[in-house]
Amino acid sequence: MFTNRPVSYRLVIKEIINGELNTDERPKIIINNTPVERVDITGVVVRKNEYENYGVLVIDDSTETIRAKFFKDTVNQIKHISEGDIVNILGRIGYFNNELHIAADIVRKVDFHSEMLHKINYLKNKDKMHMSKKKDYRKEILNTIKSSNGVKLEELEKVFKDVNVKDIINELMVNGEIYEPEKGVYKVI
Predict the structure, then answer these.
(1) How confident is the model at residue 136 (pLDDT cuts 50, 70, 90)?
(2) S-S: 40 plus which of 10, 48, 89, 158, CB 3.0-4.6 Å?
(3) For residue 128, what pLDDT is reported?
(4) How confident is the model at residue 1 (pLDDT cuts 50, 70, 90)?
(5) Average pLDDT value for the chain
(6) Which residues contact 104 (CB under 8 A, 6 or more apart)?
(7) Domain with CATH 1.10.10 in the chain
């Protein structure tokens, strides 16, 4: 039977730890207005505790550490895992006794190359996750440029203080939406 699961986001542990925790319904973290319930992480097992119906792996991905918890349905998966192994874990965000953790669904050993691939894919997907925030400012900056007869970069940076205006300007230029008739001044094509 098919179960409808939330999307799993490939993240580094630091983003999970620094995400805004929301425990209204199911525990989740909010990253740039994106609710994240399921995560996909890769890292090194730095500690393992295993009991009959419960187990914990502490995972370090060089950005931070987090506990991955395994319960009676999944605890058998960690029997073949040892401290020092590189693992990939898929699971849900969990929160219990003031501790953020991952309630693991799947764990598998991976090699160093898989860990590097995970980091590369994380960097690719990171841009997509953060795109919604960037696109809002992109439209606002484009509209500001449209409403004038040329805008200086410094003026845009004063208006959009919390945004990397140069990156958005470069994107607009690459897409052929604006041009630079003189250094530091931008107009709509």
Answers:
(1) low
(2) 10
(3) 58
(4) very low
(5) 84
(6) 57, 68, 69, 70, 74, 77, 89, 90, 91
(7) 131-188
CATH no. of 8-110: 2.40.50.140
Per the CB < 8 A criterion, the answer to whether 169 and 178 are in contact is: yes
pLDDT at 131: 46
How many CA atoms are closer than 13 Å to the CA of 91, on its beta-carbon side? Answer: 29
Query: Which CATH number does 131-188 carry?
Result: 1.10.10
In the chain, which residues fall in CATH 2.40.50.140? 8-110
Structure tokens at 51: 């009991």
Q: Which amino acid is at 58?
A: V
| CB environment 32-51: b (16+ within 10 A), e (fewer) | eebbbbbbbbbbbbeeeeee
Q: Which residue has the tokens 């991976």?
A: 110
Q: In 3-state terms, what secondary structure has residue 23? A: coil
Beta bridge partners of 55: 50, 70
N-terminal to C-terminal alpha carbon distance within the chain: 53
- Contact indicator for 37, 6 with CB cutoff of 8 Å: yes
Range with the poorest average pLDDT among 42-56, 67-81, 85-99, 151-165:
151-165
